[in-house]
Design brief:
alpha+beta; 33 strands; 15 helices; single chain
Length: 725
């Protein structure tokens, strides 16, 4: 069983639930593999250690099936030479060597004699490791290789700190010549089994350790493959490492969409890593091409995250948006269930599996406590149709769009004032239900927390844009009267929004209205989402742009969630002063909508430069909002931020779209670039393999002084490419 977690690291506060980052990783970056509903977290040695931050392990469907797996050479940890995931995320490779090995007082093997190579792959609920040990010495070597392992069957919420009054029972281990089976029967009466098997019998094997006695001649090599499988049948298929490696490579290769390439190798690395991370977060998921939100804490379907990720990635790969829409339509709430914050027409927030969800100890088995996923669902439907022209999908989900619009009118607007508000109905659900869902994220200028029902500024923008899109889609389907009614609603909301939310002295929109309709007069990044939606007046949008890029709001590494100088500003907080890549990409798109491309390019440059300091060029979920200081110093990392995180990975693609002013009209078919700009770090950029209907296009952009030239480099099929300079 895992050690008890200190109460101050728990994610449950009273009767409220949050999955927030609170504990330090002690500077050791995680190595991540994921496929489908399984993921594995290693340290840089390729181990799942029992010491450290505590989240290492192999997880499946919300449960940790292996909590410890460590390699020892004569009882010692090898010396690390190098470790990294492959560029496509299919394999983790680790190279090490031996420390000085003694036989009693005698130095038997000098350090650096043995090359110890480990390769990990994850495929279909099983982790496979290939371990090779090669003797580069001139003399034979006797060495003892041990693999130490253990399982705790902790629910992901237990790993984050939730303390249970009672757990299930550990079952008796089964130990054979080359296989160990560990098992646990939960209080949900489900038996979970971990099978650990080896390609050759160890010299000694018990319920927590496999030991191999090696006699390696000079230049001799030893290899063993292990397989750790979740809920595997009693009759195993052996340990097919190469088959698993080839299978995951093929699966990841099939998931790729269009790409952006340049003369800047580091930018290309960022784009390639972002695409690879989106592939990893998507491949093998039973929901189709639906991106799980992030590893480790959010490796499940989230409504808002899936929608915003698909929106950002839409120009490169429309299939993600299609599958997100289909899944969310299937899981749309059909009845009122207060314990899950569910109401007819509402789009789900998150869906989890695991013992705690099965038992109802947490409310997130299928939870609907989000105020923004429902209007964003309609927005994604409109954007997807603009991108792909997929009438069949539009017709299939039109009833779901209508139900979402009905929810906005009936359940979303709690008091009939035309604004969408939230108030938690579930006793244990989320108190704040926008994308900034931490307990202290909505507050007044004096620091007092806002009391609900709460109307967030960006959600009104989402509702406005949802009705604009729905009106256009209604016309496509021949529903003219419905389209006119939706357009009238959008116009009315826009006028009311300006009256209620604009703060002239702040030069931005209020964060929210509280339950008494008092504005939360705080400068936040939420206003960037307002611009993105198009609800803002053009003159006020320009004021917001200046506020967002002012020194108080813009750290140099991106726009802060809350501006410096506000009472609750804290650059180390989760939502009150940190920098989130997806938040910045949405703001950049909003600025571009109102013609402020130079500001969009400035945000793009900040996030690109931040990526240079991140391992693997992988932007995490968030980082701290401290001011950019000396050259050569990167942004301050946020402890236990998810990495990879889907909408952070997709932000790179949205920044490209914002700078280029890219849009589509598949019915014509046409691809258009409106006032394209290149950020200062790019002299040449090429979009490759962009599909428009049945056509495929490559388009190149090149800087000429202050101007940008555009050339179509390849075109197969009928498509018009237009540029407005």
């Amino acid at each position: 069983m895992k050690d008890a977690t200190p109460l101050e690291e728990a994610i449950r506060v009273g009767d409220r639930w949050y999955v927030l980052a609170t504990a330090s990783r002690e500077g050791d970056p995680l190595r991540v593999l994921k496929f489908g509903e399984s993921f594995a977290l290693f340290d840089r040695f390729g181990d799942m250690p029992r010491a450290g931050s505590g989240e290492h392990g192999f997880y499946h469907q919300g449960t940790r099936y292996l909590a410890r797996y460590e390699l020892r050479v004569n009882g010692l940890r090898p010396i690390l030479l190098h470790s990294s995931a492959r560029r496509d995320n299919s394999t983790l490779g680790v190279d090490g060597t031996n420390a000085d090995l003694h036989d009693g007082e005698r130095l038997a093997t000098v350090k650096g004699t043995l090359h110890i190579a480990r390769s990990w792959v994850l495929w279909e609920a099983a982790c496979h490791e290939r371990l090779r040990v090669e003797n580069f010495g001139l003399e034979p070597v006797h060495v003892r290789i041990a693999l130490e392992f253990g399982a705790d069957y902790a629910d992901i919420f237990e790993v984050r700190g939730y303390e249970r009054a009672r757990r299930g029972e550990d079952l008796a281990p089964q130990v054979g010549r080359e296989r160990v089976v560990l098992a646990y029967r939960g209080l949900d009466d489900i038996e979970r089994r971990t099978t650990i098997e080896f390609s050759q019998p160890p010299a000694a094997l018990d319920a927590g350790r496999a030991q191999f006695e090696l006699d390696l001649p000079a230049r001799g090599r030893f290899e063993v493959v292990s397989r750790i499988a979740c809920d595997a049948p009693a009759a195993s298929e052996g340990v097919p490492f190469l088959k698993a490696a080839r299978s995951v490579e093929d699966a990841f290769r099939r998931e790729r969409g269009a790409a952006a390439r340049s003369t800047n190798e580091q930018f290309d690395d960022w784009m390639q890593r972002s695409a690879a991370d989106l592939t990893m977060l998507t491949a093998g998921n039973p929901q189709g091409c639906y991106p799980y939100a992030g590893v480790p804490w959010y490796s499940v379907p989230f409504g808002r995250d899936g929608i915003l990720t698909a929106l950002q990635y839409l120009w490169a790969e429309p299939a993600m948006a299609r599958d997100v829409l289909r899944f969310l339509a299937r899981t749309q709430a059909s009845e009122t269930r207060p314990e899950q914050d569910a109401e007819p027409g509402k789009i789900m927030h998150e869906m989890r599996r695991g013992e705690l969800a099965n038992l109802g100890e947490i409310p997130f088995g299928c939870y609907y406590g989000t105020i923004d996923a429902t209007p964003l669902f309609v927005v994604l439907a409109g954007e997807y149709h603009w991108r792909a022209g997929d009438r069949a999908t539009l017709e299939a989900i039109w009833p779901n769009i209508e139900r979402a619009l009905a929810w906005m009118d009936r359940y979303g607007d709690l008091d009939g004032d035309g604004f969408i508000e939230y108030a938690r109905r579930s006793r244990t659900g989320l108190v704040n239900q926008g994308w900034k869902d931490s307990e202290d994220s909505v507050f007044h200028a004096d620091g007092r927390l806002a009391e609900g029902p709460i109307a967030l500024c960006e959600v009104q923008g989402y509702a406005y844009l949802a009705r604009v899109h729905a009106a256009r889609l209604a016309r496509v389907l021949g529903h003219g009267a419905r389209a006119e009614a939706l357009e009238a609603q959008a116009r009315e909301l826009q006028a009311n929004f300006e009256r209620a939310f604009w703060c002239e002295d702040l030069g931005t929109y209020a964060l929210a209205l509280d339950g008494e309709k008092r504005p939360c007069r705080v400068r936040t990044s939420n206003a960037g989402h307002v611009l993105w939606s198009g609800i803002a007046r053009p003159d006020r949008a320009r004021r917001v742009g200046e506020t967002l890029l002012s020194p108080d709001s813009f750290s140099g590494w991106g726009v802060r969630t809350v501006a410096r100088g506000e009472v609750r500003y804290n650059p180390m907080s989760y939502h009150n002063g940190s920098v989130w890549p997806h938040d910045n990409a949405i703001a950049a798109m909003g600025l571009a909508r109102y013609g402020m491309k130079e500001k969009s390019a400035r945000i793009a440059a900040a996030l690109y430069e931040a990526s240079l300091f991140m391992e693997l060029h992988r932007l995490p979920e968030l980082y701290c909002g401290f001011e950019r200081a000396h050259a050569g110093e990167g942004p301050t990392l946020y402890p236990v931020a998810c990495s990879p995180q889907a909408w952070a990975s997709a932000s790179a693609f949205y920044l490209v779209k914002a700078c280029l002013g890219l849009s589509f009209r598949p019915e014509e078919p046409r691809m258009r670039f409106l006032h394209p700009v290149l950020p200062g770090f790019l002299d040449r950029l090429r979009l490759v393999d962009v599909r428009v209907g049945d056509a495929v296009v490559d388009v190149q952009f090149e800087r000429h002084g202050r101007e940008v030239g555009v050339n179509v480099m390849r075109k197969h099929g009928e498509v018009e490419v237009s540029v407005v300079l």
